[in-house]
């Protein structure tokens, strides 16, 4: 039963992220790295179809902040080259906190990505104020003993969806 609730929650997040076609949107996923990455991968799988293209980067796969920025620029370029196909474009970044010393450089690249029509899905272990400004939604992971995750929209200051701990099988992260 718990997988059913998780899948429903992920589909709801994916639907909300794709329902706004007028302008680009973004989602910040905040929480412990491994849990965020699992959620992010499942969200990517829910988003990817014939009408959407998702490019995923995990900054933990790179040794330096400079490497992270270089691969981020490359991803933006590759995604923007697919713009003519008419697909909705998503850039998914895991472990944004890895570019802590070069946060502003990374944010500039993300601003450029949004101006090219690329939607953002960024995970980090804390809320970066610059990412809050670039994203319209916040997904919190491991929020409390009762609620495992919530989807929050900044502009309306409302929780749009939530997932209770009892409905989660990613729960290994709660016990560690």
Describe it.
- The protein is 41% helix and 26% strand.
- The protein is an alpha/beta fold and 176 residues long.
- It has a single domain, classed as 3-Layer(aba) Sandwich (Rossmann fold), CATH 3.40.50.
- The model is unreliable at 171-176 (pLDDT under 50).
Number of domains: 1
CATH topology category name: Rossmann fold
Contiguous low-pLDDT stretches (5 residues minimum) are 171-176
Q: What is Rg? A: 15 Å
Helix content: 40-55%
Per CATH, the architecture is: 3-Layer(aba) Sandwich
Give the helices and strands as they follow along the chain: HEHEHEHEHEEEH
State the strand order across the main sheet. Answer: 2-3-4-1-5-6-7
CATH class descriptor: Alpha Beta
**Termini Cα gap:** 23 Å
Can you count the beta strands? 7
User: For the record, what is the CATH homologous superfamily label?
Assistant: P-loop containing nucleotide triphosphate hydrolases
Gross geometry: globular
Number of helices: 6
Proportion of residues in β-strands:
25-35%
How many strands, which pairing sense, and closed or not: the largest β-sheet? 7 strands, mixed
SS-derived structural category: alpha/beta
- On the 0 to 100 scale, the average pLDDT is 87
